[in-house]
Structures are given as structure tokens and as C-alpha cells.
Amino acid sequence: MGHWLDRNIIEPGKLPLLLALAAFVLTFLVTRAITRLIRAGKGPFGNVTSGELHIHHVVPGVVLTVVGGFGAVASGEEGAWPAIAAVVFGVGAGLVLDEFALVLHLDDVYWTEAGRKSVEAVVLTAALVGLLLAGFAPFGVNDLSQDELQNRAGAAASIGANFLFALIALSKGKARTAVFGVVIPVIALIGSVRLARPDSPWARRFYRRRPRARARSFLRAYRHDRRWSGPRRTVENWLGGRPDPTPRP
């Protein structure tokens, strides 16, 4: 274990990234545990307030993210400061993304169906950072040969093509595929050639006069959601807690 850590993490200079990821995931898990206890009325915890103002934990999260980010930039590469700044940044990012849905909707949707976006953002971020930690580089730059890296035109063309595939996948309503495709280009390529989701900008633009393609798009989306929505909701409930039931009109 020590040899693997030295060779794959410390020598390549990835220790701050590992510490930031660990702090990020741990902060999210601890925060969710505390908020679930507060929701259930158990334990010594309670909401932080100033008068009648409820101070959400995204506020200290933003402060810690700013401090950790600027601290990492100012600390250079020597000493323990990069590692400390990485931990501070990871804690702040965990607090911020735990309330990502609140920032997105500008409303306290923490325990609603819309609040699931926070859990999705955290899982997606942790997975992407894990891929970077494993050695993947954005836009497939790590797949280029030394000759291609020396040839700036070839490198720029490769990066541009990968970015284009990611944009096409995003326009087809496949946000997760597009994000992961930035790091693993073959995923973006697959997402760009497959059918678009029926509610995507691509479908509205190119399937408007193609009823067969539109029907296939609806059928594939239905089968995909039917297969994966249940397991995804189970994992999200386990990680972030079950949302409040939506009141009937």
C-alpha cells in the first residue's frame, strides 16, 4: 500500500488532490448525517440562525472554498501548505455542493424532489475527481503521443474534436455522458452518435419532421428511465435521505 501511494500519488504530486477528494466526500457524508438527525429531531444538533435568518451551510462552504482556492494558489508547491489548502477547499466544496440545489433554484429545496440535484452533483464531482486521480486527463490529452503533443495543431484538433463530441452529447440531453466524456473522450463519442432524449434541444431541432426517430427516442428514453430510475433513487435516498412527499394539488 505504501509503495502504491508513493508511486501513484505522492511522486506525481497528486497528494493534495487525494486529500481534497477525501475531505470533500467526508464533509458531504458528515453533513448529510447531521441534517438527517436535525430533520428527525434527534441528537444535539440544530439549525444555525442569526435572529430569524437561517444560515445555510453553503455560506461557510463558500468562505472555505475561497480560502482554500486562493491558499492553494499562493502556497506554491513546497511544504505542507498545499495539502492544508486542499483539505480546506475540499471541506468548502463539500458544503457548497451539498446545497447545490438551493443555489440552483434560489430556494430552500433541500428535502424536496428538486433537492436530489445536490446528491447528483456530489456523486458526479467525486467520480470526476476520482478519474483525474486515476490518471485520466480532460479531453483525452493523456491519449496523445509525444509527436502529437509536440505538434500543436494536431493536439488542438484532437481536443477540439473531443470537446465537440461532448457538446453534441449535451445538446442531446445527456448531461452525465457529456461531463464524463470531457475526461474519457470515447464516452462523449458514444453519446454524440446515439439517439437524443425526446426533451432535448437536439430532438426539438432535428426530430421535428422525423416521426420515426422521435418515436424511437421516446421508446429508448422510457426503457432507460424504467431500468435505471429505481436503482438511482435508491442510492440517492441512501446517500442524501428520502425527500418529503410532494403534496397533491
TrEMBL record:
Q: Which keywords fit this entry according to its UniProt record?
A: Membrane, Transmembrane, Transmembrane helix
> Could you list the residue ranges that cross the membrane?
15-34, 55-74, 80-106, 118-141, 153-170, 177-196
- Superkingdom, according to UniProt? Bacteria
Question: What is the protein's name according to its record?
Answer: Integral membrane protein
Species the sequence originates in? Streptomyces fungicidicus
